[in-house]
């Protein structure tokens, strides 16, 4: 099983200031990042990563490619429609 870490990066310098983890899931790493930030974070999903920023810091959680592959050809986050539309 993959270990997940949340790296906290100082945006202007690009320096990693600390690493949180290891965690069993990316969700746990993101939750720990919110606790570390001390406020809500809005996460953006880019290929291979979850990223949130509260300038001057950025929280980065790397996700293995297998975990970011769409299921059954649906884009990530796709929701099955309910009932007749």
- Work out the helicity level: 10-25%
Number of helices: 1
Beta-strand percentage?
Answer: 35-45%
The number of domains is 1
Could you characterize the architecture of this molecule?
The protein has 85 residues and is mainly beta. It has one domain (4-65). The chain has one helix and five strands, in the order ββαβββ. The protein has one helix spanning 26-37, and strands at 4-10, 15-23, 44-46, 49-54, 57-62. The chain has a five-stranded antiparallel β-sheet, covered by helices on one side. The longest helix has 12 residues, at 26-37. The radius of gyration is 15 Å and the shape is globular.
Short recap of the structure:
This protein has 85 residues and is mainly beta. The chain contains one helix and five strands; from the N terminus they run ββαβββ.
